[in-house]
Structures are given as C-alpha cells and as structure tokens.
Design brief:
The complex is a heterodimer of chains A (227) and B (127).
Chain A: H1 4-25, H2 33-47, H3 51-57, H4 59-63, H5 65-78, H6 80-85, H7 87-111, H8 116-122, H9 129-139, H10 143-167, H11 173-195, H12 197-226
Chain B: H1 2-23, H2 30-44, H3 49-61, H4 63-66, H5 68-72, H6 74-83, H7 85-126
The chains are: A mainly alpha (227), B mainly alpha (127).
Chain lengths: 227, 127
C-alpha cells in the first residue's frame, strides 16, 4: 500500500497551505506545521492509512534532509565575515550553549523521571531538526520524538526569547542573535530577524554551528555516561 | 545544468561525509560531516559558490517541509508523549531558557573582554 504521488502531493500541498497562512497573516510564529500537520493527519485518519505507509511513501522527502544539512555550509560561507570578526565569542558561546543544552536535558530528565528514550531523543533538542534527528538516531533516541521536541523548543524560544533577553539585559546584537539561534534554531532566527539584521545573521550562523558542536558533544557526553 | 551540478556537488559531499562517519564508527552523523566538508571546499575555492547556490538555497529554504514525514510519526508516539506530557514540556522549557541565557551571556562577556583589550591596543597604536 504505497502511493508515492498522492502522499507527495498531500505533503507539499499541506505545507503550502501552512506557508500561505503565515504569509497572509504576517505572523512569524505561525509555523507552517500548525496547519499542515493536522491536515495530513486528518487525511490519513479519514482514509485509515497507517503512519508507516505514509512515511514509506514520502521517503523521498525525508531523504532531502541530509543534503539540506550539507547545504547549511553555504549559510556559514555567506556569513564568514561575521564569524571571523566574532570568532572567539561565537565559538565559546556555541560550545557552552551545546554543553549546557545536553547536560541540562540529562539533569532535567532525571529530576522529572523521564525514560532514557526521552533523554536520548531530547539531548540534541536545541539544534535544527534534521541535524537533531540524525544525532538522536545515532545516540539511540527516536527521531520522530526528537522532531516534535525540537519544533516545540523552537516555539518556546521564539515566544519567550525576547522577554528573557530583556530580563537579562543583553545589549550586544550579536549576543542576542546567538542566544536566539542556539536555543531556538530556525524559529528563533525568524524572531531574531525581526530584532535586526545583525541579530538575524548571528542567529542564522548559530544554527549551523550549534548543530556541528552538538553533534560532537552528544556522543562524547553519552560515552562519559556509559563509563 | 546549474541545478544538476549543484545536486551532484552536494550529494558528493554527503557521500564523503557518510563515508567518514562510517570510518569513525558513526560517532558523528554523515550529514554534519558533509556540511563541514562543503564549508572547507568552499573556503579553499575547490567548490565555487555559484555551482551550488541555486540548489543549496532551495534545500535550506524548504528544510521545514522535509521533516514533515518524521513529524507525522507523532501519530504513533502520542501515547508515550501524553503519558509524560508535563514532564516533557518542563524539560523542554527549562532547558531552552538555560541554553539561551548561558550562550547569550558567554558571548556578551567574551565580546566585552575582547573590546576592552582591543580598545587599549588601539589607543597605544594611535598615540
């Protein structure tokens, strides 16, 4: 029971509806998934199609995640001047950010009594979804749980981010952008772009660098835990 | 021609990344290694930016759509999420706040330290 053209059209069509709604309303926080995911789920439920069949039929779209992660290099390349000028600050903040992200998930999962599957799926949760899914999969997590958690994190960061930045009185535009990008990846960056061009650029490059750093930190941390 | 060249160059980096990932026992995902490799080949001029721009921009701009299939997996996961719903939310919210504050602060501090140093250096240069 595979129907590749139908599932591809359903996915792309639902996604376009979500993008269109965001463009019409002009709300950066109206993530396309808020509309597209319920649409797809409703169609699958009505037609009584199991989730696995949908995923098998859309394997082609899923495949594009790998190449799109590779393509993030162009984003870094475009911002190479910003990176060069702020190298020390960016490297130290991204390193601390990814370590804090992984360790805090471990501590909090203990505190709230969540299983290992949650821990391994959430460790890379501050990273852009495709990288997070790959990292979680190698760590023994569930990529779907990771995808949902990552997007939720993006929402949290984008909604409360500006408020938190005001409380901690972060003035430097690069630091503000880094804070948004490391904690809330793409959604945080959409918000950072509204704050200013420098914030947006810093947040954008933080996405790729945070992904790289977390891909190093997560396996190291898990190795340490296994000792 | 430009599209097909871009697809090939990006795929070649992904393949090389996967190969390296396999060589280091899957320690890091091949896609992330491929990203580093592409950055290196771009900076060294082995790959020209205009070879990949069209495809790379298409891929990064539409990235959100590419993880819809994975996201739909929530249908099968809803049971375990809803059982731990509040703990899950709490972990995500608290961890996101901690990451935001720590990375922002660290960058702010390092930036200020360097500024102090360079402004002192600048003054002595000018005098």
């Amino acid at each position: 029971m595979m129907n590749v053209p139908f599932m591809l059209a359903l996915t792309i069509g639902a996604y376009l509806m979500g993008v269109y709604a965001r463009r019409k309303t002009g709300m950066a926080l109206l993530h396309p998934f808020i509309i597209s995911i319920p649409v797809v789920i409703a169609v699958l439920e009505m037609a009584d199609i199991p989730c696995v069949y949908y995923q098998d039929s859309t394997a082609f779209i899923d495949f594009l995640l790998g190449p799109s992660v590779v393509s993030l290099a162009l984003l870094l390349y475009d911002h190479r001047e910003t990176i060069r000028k702020n190298l020390a600050g960016i490297l130290s903040s991204i390193t601390i950010g990814s370590v804090v992200g992984v360790v805090s998930v471990w501590v909090l999962c203990r505190v709230f009594g969540l299983d290992d599957i949650f821990m391994y799926s959430l460790e890379p949760k501050s990273v852009t979804t495709p990288i997070a899914m790959d990292v979680a999969e190698s760590a023994g997590g569930n990529p779907s749980l990771t995808a949902v958690s990552v997007i939720f994190c993006g929402f949290i960061g984008a909604v409360i981010g500006p408020f938190i930045l005001r409380i901690i009185r972060l003035k430097s535009p690069v630091a503000r952008g880094i804070a948004m990008g490391t904690s809330a990846h793409g959604l945080g960056t959409a918000r950072a772009i509204e704050m200013g061009a420098v914030e947006g650029a810093a947040s954008g490059l933080a996405i790729a660098l945070m992904g790289l750093m977390t891909a190093i930190v997560v396996p190291l941390f898990n190795l340490l835990l296994a000792l | 021609m430009r599209v097909i060249t871009g697809i090939f160059v990006i795929l070649a980096h992904l393949v090389a990344g996967n190969l390296l990932s396999w060589l280091i026992g899957g320690f890091m995902p091949g896609s992330v290694i491929g990203m580093v490799l592409l950055y290196i080949t771009l900076r060294t001029g082995i790959v020209k930016e205009h070879w990949i721009r069209v495809v790379a921009v298409f891929l990064t701009d539409n990235m959100t759509m590419f993880f819809m299939p994975a996201f739909i997996g929530i249908m099968d996961l809803w049971g375990i999420i809803s059982m731990n719903f509040w703990a899950w939310i709490a972990v995500l919210v608290l961890s996101t706040i901690v990451v935001m504050i720590s990375s922002g602060y660290v960058h702010d501090i390092v930036e200020r330290l360097l500024q102090k140093k360079s402004s002192q250096g600048g003054r002595s240069c000018r005098s």
